[in-house]
Design a protein that fits this description.
The chain is α/β, with parallel strands linked by helices and about 350 residues long. The protein folds into 2 domains: about 5-265, Spore Coat Polysaccharide Biosynthesis Protein SpsA, Chain A (Alpha-Beta Complex); about 275-350, no CATH class. The chain is about 30% helix and about 30% strand. The strands form 4 sheets. Strands 6-9-7-8-10 form a 5-stranded mixed β-barrel. A hairpin with a 2-residue loop joins strand 16 (about 315-320) and strand 17. The longest helix has 17 residues, at about 125-140.
Amino acid sequence: MGALIPVILAGGKGERFWPLSRKDRPKQFLKLLPGGQSLIQATAERLLPLAGGWHRLYVSTSRHLAGKILEELPKLPLENLILEPEPRDTAPAVAWLTLQLAERYGEEAVLGVFPADHYISPPEAFRQAIAAGAAFAQETPAILTFGIHPIHPATGYGYIERGEPTKVIADLAFYRVARFTEKPDRATAERYLNSGNYYWNSGIFVFQAATMLAELERHVPEIVQPLRTGGLDAFKGLKKTSIDYAVMEKTDKAYVAPAPFTWDDLGDWTALERLLNPEGGNVELAKHIGLDTNGAIIYATSKDEVVVTLGLEDVVIVRDGNITLVAQKSRIQEIKALLKRLKAERNLQNLA
């Protein structure tokens, strides 16, 4: 391995894991799962064999998170941080990191872009798939993504419709993308699931730098051209937009490979239930004494905290410092609206 240059995208907020996730402690730094690693540490460990060592592993993040990244990944060379002055979503981030790495390694370099805060298993199957994807991108002008076989009609994910087959490398099949679609309603998601021709969008991309730069120039020159000429000084003037919307929904260079690994985007607290207790019951990441409490997700930062419940169904309870969140699981997606309320309260803004 080592032909691929992996880049970890680590500039997100992960607000739906509030109160554990905050501005200076976003989701990628959280230790949500057993094992003791933060999500970004687990991501780096998965990618190191592909990179061939720390010297070829990069992290794209906001400037204010640089110190925290180096605390989490102390072996990462300082020059391997690709910093943005402020978050502008994934299209400007991908444009900037591609320009930077094309300058260092040449436009023929094959780059992989990986979110810092996903759960993936087993790591060896993941690495084999990514290595096959790198080989595909080396010989094909492609922006490759990995599609996740949907297991339920999720309405919180974007979907990828599979087109005609192209190549098979190391037992991994590659298809043209017929189209990217936005998050569907329930009926549409059920239709996608039943068709067998749609995948969840994993947010993982593999491409030659030259291919990505050409597609950025074609579809969003207003993003890539200012970065070419003005560098980081141009960042604040760029519109916030995702790489899916800016490029992937428009390009004819999009390809998809069905992922031969387990994936979860860890989008909110209910992800812990999917991963730790898929058969039902309570998820207890705290000392919990409960009576007639079912389907609860309970988390406490301090090992000394004791959470006592009585007669609760399908709730999320999170205790972090001086904040306690109690919410219905069905409404956990509304945490962002709750944070807006907190930010509007002058004496509570620091809690958000």
